[in-house]
Design brief:
Blueprint lengths: L5 H15 L11 E5 L15 E8 L6 E8 L10 E3 L9 E3 L4 E4 L3 E4 L9 H14 L1
Antiparallel strand pairs: 1-2, 1-7, 2-3, 3-5, 3-6, 4-5
């Protein structure tokens, strides 16, 4: 089992918080962005250094600077098929939303936009994603 760098992430969080005052983020629904991921315990989605992964913005204004996101992965697991949604993005690598990992994060965690064809997921695809999430409940 690989050791998790909780102290490294704690130092990174301090840096992110300090640097945020210099930024002003405009976030839109349906955008794909990179965000800082924390080091986790158990089965929550996590990533090794440098703690960054892509996500889809579901709600750009939750409460204060909080937003709702769904993490994106390239690792599809057939046995958990119902919690994955394949994104229709032209790329050499398939990308999947992990619908069971929907979460609320601070805008401070956002790094930058990932530019795709039309800059955002289409409204039709976005509604399909929302419907699939509702069916999971």
């Amino acid at each position: 089992m690989k050791d998790k760098d909780f102290d490294g992430w704690n130092n990174e969080k301090k840096k992110i918080d300090k640097d945020f005052s210099k930024k002003h983020l405009w976030v839109n629904k349906r955008e794909i962005r990179l965000y800082y991921v924390w080091v986790n315990i158990w089965n929550e989605i996590s990533k090794n250094s440098p703690y960054i992964r892509p996500c889809l913005i579901i709600n750009n204004y939750f409460i204060g600077d909080l937003i709702v996101i769904i993490p994106i992965t390239t690792k599809y697991k057939q046995k958990f098929e119902k919690v994955f949604y394949k994104l229709p993005i032209k790329s050499n690598i398939s990308s999947f939303l992990m619908l069971n990992q929907i979460t609320v994060i601070s805008k401070k965690r956002l790094v930058r936009k990932i530019y795709i064809e039309n800059k955002k997921i289409s409204t039709i695809i976005f509604e399909e994603i929302i419907d699939k999430m509702k069916n999971l409940l």
